[in-house]
Amino acid sequence: MTTAPETTARRHAVFHRLRVAAVDRLTDDAVAVTLDVPAHLRDEFRFRAGQHLTVRAPGLAGDVRRTYSVCAPATGDVLRIGVRRVPDGVFSGYATDHLAAGDELDVMTPSGTFSPDLDPTHARRYVAVAAGSGVTPVLSILATALAVEPLSTAALVLANRRPGTIMFLEDLEALKNTYPDRFQLLHVLREEGPDLELLSGRLDTDRMHRILDTVLPVDDVDEWFLCGPLGLTDAVRSTLLDRGVDPAHVHRELFHVGAAPVRRRPAAPDRAAPGSTVTAVLDGRSTTVTVPRDGESVLDAVLRVRADAPFACTNGVCGTCRARVLEGAVEMDGNWALEPDEVARGMVLTCQSHPVTDHVTVDYDR
């Protein structure tokens, strides 16, 4: 292992300890957590609509990290996330049952590229399709877009089980009341749905096609934002592409993809063969480590010598561990966080990356 001196400023996400300002009950199993950002950290915690935070609770055993989208508009000074309890969820159970104002959390600075490029002169049509807690980033995106672009309009198709399970229902109704002529809200409910059959039931491919036929013509929409389980976003994305929508205008963020990805590349036949040398640039400091080509990921190897390397989900979903390949090549097992243009620019998810050349250099500082 070799280490070079620090030369450049840090640009990747890092943890800071923040005080919890408020915990507000949203549903029986979900809360909104508002964080108090001190004045000296406000610049570091400025976020773009749709970005997310990685959080951990100092009181929980182990390094339990979870990623949650910021659900507040990017036009204000509020930093807030929504947390829904999941079965056996270590952090979500703690947050929904025990977290209170005055407690402290370790919070990473904002990450993610699930964001629109906004311009006050634009007149665009934004449509989001989300399910359950997938409402959190799109609430931020649509509220920000409507505030920043007065000529633009927006719509949200939101799938839930029943009215009592809808997160941020009051915020959505307030957004509708603020922009009655510019924001359209469609609740699709599997249970206790409205009398309108179109919006009562599961949001499957057939129902999505009918919504596009009758309510949201694809030719009127400039940008699509999808957030929810892999199956739902896959189905909606396929529906849009079948309708001729340009894939470049369909943006997706996932909260869960199910089982861990399967390695596509077979293991090297000679397990005794030396691995690749991987140099990681982090906070301007270069660290080199040997990585076997058929074993641990680049992130795992870097963490052996640099505990400060950024990561969260390690499943290729959140994008916290992203870095740019400067030399050599890697292969990713899975990728649900990077846009095609980012991959074209050499960005990779180090938690999914394995070297395929003798020497690889990745830059977390980008």
From TrEMBL:
Gene Ontology molecular functions: 2 iron, 2 sulfur cluster binding; flavin adenine dinucleotide binding; metal ion binding; oxidoreductase activity
Q: Where is the 2Fe-2S ferredoxin-type domain?
A: 276-366
Q: Which Pfam families match?
A: FAD_binding_6, Fer2, NAD_binding_1
Q: Which domain of life is it from?
A: Bacteria
Essential cofactor(s):
FAD
* InterPro entries noted in UniProt: 2Fe-2S_ferredoxin-like_sf, 2Fe-2S_ferredoxin-type, 2Fe2S_fd_BS, Beta-grasp_dom_sf, Cbr1-like_FAD-bd_dom, FAD-bd_FR_type, FNR_nucleotide-bd, MRET
Check the record and name the SUPFAM superfamilies matching this protein: 2Fe-2S ferredoxin-like, Ferredoxin reductase-like, C-terminal NADP-linked domain, Riboflavin synthase domain-like
On whether Metal-binding is a keyword of this UniProt record, the answer is yes
Q: Where is the FAD-binding FR-type domain?
A: 13-117
Q: Which GO terms describe its biological process?
A: phenylacetate catabolic process
Keywords for this entry?
A: 2Fe-2S, FAD, Flavoprotein, Iron, Iron-sulfur, Metal-binding, Oxidoreductase
Q: What is this protein called?
A: Phenylacetic acid degradation protein
